[in-house]
Amino acid sequence: MNDNLYQDDDRVVAEHGHAPDTTIPIVVYVLHLAGMVTGGLTSLVAVVIAYVYRGKGPVWIDEHYRYQIRTFWLALLFFGVSGLLTLVLIGFLTWLAAVVWLVIRCVKGLKALNEKRAPDNVDTWWV
Known about the structure:
Elements: H1 10-15, H2 23-38, H3 41-53, H4 59-85, H5 91-114
Protein name: DUF4870 domain-containing protein
Transmembrane segments: 26-53, 74-104
Keywords: Membrane, Transmembrane, Transmembrane helix
């Protein structure tokens, strides 16, 4: 069959052996995870990479970049609020919740990437 007929359905194109390279999105997810150890420095690098590569691939890869960008901004909000709440001691619990949220979100994204599909619920604030 002519693969040009399947340009709109990225999943079919991927099944026909024309899958795009997923190395950069994988690196971005790993950098987000490493951000928990580096104090967010690698997450900053990750979001810059996601912004640079957004719009340069198939739709399902672009959805990963969008998901990663949202993950950065939401994590910044959650960790920032947790930092403020440490003044009243509850921040340690919200910080732990933010870590769990970030890990789950990155694992879900990596799983979807491995399955060559867009992540679920890109627009959600939750996991």
